[in-house]
């Protein structure tokens, strides 16, 4: 009898105090190796100290979006319980949500809490009314330029793409340096090409696809004109064909070696270009929002990373506490200070220490608020592959019939969108 | 008699089980999946048996057709070059000279380096601004510098160069083994009959090297048909899809797009092409063997 009572008492006790049941719990976190890894270590240690008995086990994946995507998909396919919290790129939430792999977070990530974040990255996590991730960093396309060269020829930072081409041509003609290119961006056949091209198309009033009607828009005049402009004026006139094989590192290297007047990249490039250890142009770099086809019509692609929770996690409540902690104001601020990565909580941009140590961040806030996410759909990856093939073909082979290729791409895209349109 | 039979069976069983698990099962499963429409990111479509639909789609898919053509060009260009250079290398390494042992080791280096590393190196060599290739070709004339990996008509060629560089040592190794199996007295006899060095090569070396050559051809063809890593690192299939070889296309379909059925159909096609070519080669190899032993 005493024994039975004792058992009941222990059961009741453990139900009343779930933290005791949670003792010696392991939380599996799939991440890539971040810059300033020590800040992450400290944050994770602080979380473990605040949650007695919890151990966070990290699985470090390669820092390549494609590779971490494939690793996560493998784990989801196997319903692996050794995956609780994971890093998620901006374009995955719809896919992971639709496949039933990511846990909907609405009951944790409340509307009031969402208000404290920048709107664009939060909306990138939404799919069919549910939210599937919490943004950690925000990335957005920016225009970098050589402050010294523009000043030398009394040119103002360009507000339109046409001004940019004209400015580049002026500098190239006057400098007469055959090593110098007017512009460097990312035009290799890969995901970055879609980001670059959606900025041109969007700033001409076009879109990759019409999200309301779920049909392709690459065959529309606004999109066709923008692509033609990139082919004939950017790559044809001021950037050289080498950019057709460039991802971010090569295009940035060209700029930091002083061989490009203008450069399109994400916020991290600011710190790299101004680091005298690796850059020949430190201190001579300017940064502005991307131009548009008319003044003020500029559109920047939204990038960034989010934390999500696996549907197969055995301990979603604990996983949420970890996500909330890692995206909290304190950790975000420390990561921003250590890496210069742009935080997603609005309040941090007004922080005094941030303003003193990374002054450029505040000036980016306007761009971050206007950043446009790539359309959210579970078939994003196949759509992107069609777009990459189309853009690369018409840019690398200027003699192909643009309209014809666009129609073919639109037809292929619509066939995929058929799967999701009527749902 | 019976117990030895049982012993043989029990000794064979583990290796059979191993092959069945890691070789036969995946192949059979790929065949099975290729008859389904299964898209991981669209679970509400379910796993639907569609018969030959994936294969019909594949036939009508211009990207896949172009991809097959690219793969076949890749094989048809790289294999003869690898064998040609391989024979040259093997002939040199078969001569006796000072430092031959060292040379034999050195020559294997390109093959021993992991492809991801050498592919990255080649990507730098082909860079349009600071690549060594441009410097070698054009020197200080920077205005003439080209970007092979950015040009649709050059990118595949650039990958072929990397492939030939990387795998010629492997062909040379097989051919060297073949050369060493040729008895010296045949050469002595040929010399005694007044054959010059070309005649000795043409009438002694080449016929006796045939089995090794066919073996190298077989290995290299199967390998080249499945080329993936060079493309993955150097071009990701671009520019203008001109380096989108079949295996890379299949990988993208299956693993990045989640189109398991369609991706499996591509894998099956690559498998069948390799199988048919292997059977043809093996037939040649066998007739060749019987001829050699018969003569």
What keyword list fits this structure?
heterodimer, A: about 425 residues, alpha+beta, D-Maltodextrin-Binding Protein, domain 2, six-stranded mixed β-sheet, globular, B: about 300 residues, mainly alpha, MetI-like fold, two-stranded antiparallel ribbon, 2 strands, about 75% helix
Strand order of the largest sheet of chain A: 2-1-3-13-6-14
**Biggest β-sheet of chain A: count, sense, barrel?**
6 strands, mixed
Distance between the termini of chain B: 38 Å
Distance between the termini of chain A: 59 Å
The CATH architecture category of the largest domain in chain A equals 3-Layer(aba) Sandwich
Residue share in helices of chain A? 40-55%
Mean pLDDT of chain B: 90
Shape, per Cα inertia axes of chain A: globular
> Largest chain-chain contact?
A-B, 40 and 33 residues
Radius of gyration of chain A, taken over Cα atoms and rounded to an integer in Å: 24 Å
So, CATH architecture of chain B?
Answer: Orthogonal Bundle
Protein structure class of chain A? alpha+beta
What is the total domain count of chain B? 1
Low-pLDDT parts of chain A are 18-22
Q: Identify low-pLDDT runs of chain B.
A: none
Indicate the structural class of chain B.
mainly alpha
Written account of the structure:
- Chain A is an alpha+beta fold.
- Chain A has two domains: 2-139 and 303-370, Periplasmic binding protein-like II (D-Maltodextrin-Binding Protein, domain 2), CATH 3.40.190; 142-299 and 379-421, D-Maltodextrin-Binding Protein, domain 2 (3-Layer(aba) Sandwich), CATH 3.40.190.
- Chain A is 48% helix and 15% strand.
- Chain A has 19 helices and 14 strands.
- In chain A, the strands form four sheets. In chain A, strands 2-1-3-13-6-14 form a six-stranded mixed beta sheet.
- In chain A, helix 9 runs parallel beside helix 11 (221-239), helix 10 (191-202) packs across helix 18 and helix 11 (221-239) crosses helix 18 (380-396).
- Chain A is globular.
- With 295 residues, chain B is an all-alpha fold.
- Chain B has a single domain (29-294), classed as MetI-like fold.
- In chain B, 74% of the residues lie in helices and 1% in strands.
- Chain B has 13 helices and two strands; from the N terminus they run αββαααααααααααα.
- In chain B, strands 1-2 form a two-stranded antiparallel ribbon.
- The interface between A and B is large, with 40 and 33 residues.
């Amino acid at each position: 009898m005493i024994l039975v009572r004792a058992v009941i008492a222990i059961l009741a006790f453990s139900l009343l105090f779930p933290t005791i049941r949670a003792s010696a719990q392991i939380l599996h976190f799939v991440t890539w190796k971040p810059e300033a890894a020590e800040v992450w270590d400290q944050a994770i240690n602080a979380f473990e100290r605040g949650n007695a008995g919890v151990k966070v086990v990290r699985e470090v994946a390669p820092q390549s979006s494609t590779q971490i995507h494939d690793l996560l998909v493998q784990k989801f396919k196997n319903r692996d319980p050794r995956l609780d919290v994971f890093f998620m790129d901006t374009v995955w939430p719809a896919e992971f949500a639709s496949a039933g792999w990511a846990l909907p977070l609405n009951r944790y990530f409340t509307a009031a809490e969402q208000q404290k974040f920048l709107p664009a990255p939060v909306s990138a996590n939404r799919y069919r009314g549910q939210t599937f991730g919490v943004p950690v960093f925000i990335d957005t396309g920016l225009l970098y330029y050589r402050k010294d060269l523009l000043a030398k020829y009394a040119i103002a930072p360009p507000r339109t793409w046409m001004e940019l081409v004209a400015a580049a041509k002026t500098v190239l003609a006057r400098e007469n340096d055959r090593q110098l290119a007017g512009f460097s961006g990312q035009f290799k056949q890969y995901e970055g090409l879609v980001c670059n091209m959606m900025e041109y198309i969007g700033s001409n009033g076009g879109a990759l696809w019409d999200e309301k009607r779920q049909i392709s828009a690459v065959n529309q005049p606004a999109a066709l004109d923008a692509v033609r402009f990139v082919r004939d004026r950017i790559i044809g006139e001021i950037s050289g064909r080498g950019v057709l094989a460039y991802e971010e590192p090569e295009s940035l290297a060209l700029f930091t070696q002083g061989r490009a007047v203008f450069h399109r990249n994400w916020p991290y490039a600011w710190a790299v270009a101004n680091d005298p250890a690796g850059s020949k142009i430190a201190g001579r770099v300017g940064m502005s929002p991307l131009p548009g086809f008319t003044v003020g019509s500029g559109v920047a692609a939204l990038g960034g990373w989010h934390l999500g929770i696996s549907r197969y996690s055995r301990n979603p409540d604990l996983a949420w506490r970890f996500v909330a902690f890692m995206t909290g104001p304190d950790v975000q601020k420390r990561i921003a200070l250590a890496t210069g990565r742009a935080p997603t909580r609005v309040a941090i941009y007004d922080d005094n220490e941030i303003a003193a140590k990374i002054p450029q961040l505040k000036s980016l806030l306007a761009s971050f608020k206007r950043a446009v996410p790539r359309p959210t759909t579970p078939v994003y990856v196949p759509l992107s592959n069609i777009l990459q093939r189309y853009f690369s073909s018409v840019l690398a082979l200027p003699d192909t019939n643009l309209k014809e290729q666009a129609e073919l791409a639109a037809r292929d895209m619509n066939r995929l969108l058929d799967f999701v349109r009527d749902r | 008699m019976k117990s030895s039979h049982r012993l043989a069976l029990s000794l064979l069983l583990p290796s059979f089980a191993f092959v069945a698990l890691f070789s036969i099962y995946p192949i059979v499963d790929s065949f099975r999946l290729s008859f389904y429409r299964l898209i991981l990111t669209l679970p509400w479509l379910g796993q639907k048996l569609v018969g030959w639909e994936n294969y019909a789609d594949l036939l009508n898919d211009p990207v896949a057709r172009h991809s097959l053509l690219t793969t076949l060009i890749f094989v048809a260009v790289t294999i003869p070059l690898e064998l040609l250079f391989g024979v040259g290398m093997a002939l040199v390494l078969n001569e006796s000279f000072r430092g031959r042992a060292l040379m034999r080791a050195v020559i294997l280096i390109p093959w021993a380096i992991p492809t991801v590393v050498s592919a990255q190196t080649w990507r730098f060599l082909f860079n349009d601004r600071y690549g060594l290739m441009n410097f070698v070709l054009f020197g200080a004339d920077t205005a003439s510098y080209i970007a092979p990996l950015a040009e649709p008509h050059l990118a595949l060629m650039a990958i072929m160069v990397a492939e030939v560089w990387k795998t010629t040592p492997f062909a040379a190794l097989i051919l060297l083994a073949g050369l060493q199996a040729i008895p010296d007295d045949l050469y002595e006899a040929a010399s005694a009959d007044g054959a010059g060095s070309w005649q000795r090569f043409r009438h002694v070396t080449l016929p006796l090297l045939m089995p090794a050559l066919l073996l190298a051809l077989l290995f290299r063809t199967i390998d080249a048909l499945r080329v993936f890593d060079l493309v993955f690192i150097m071009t990701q299939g671009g520019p203008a899809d001109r380096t989108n070889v079949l295996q890379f296309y299949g990988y993208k379909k299956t693993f990045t797009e989640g189109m398991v059925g369609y991706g499996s159909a591509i894998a099956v096609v690559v498998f069948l092409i390799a199988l048919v070519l292997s059977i043809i080669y093996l037939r040649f190899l066998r007739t060749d063997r019987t001829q050699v032993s018969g003569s």
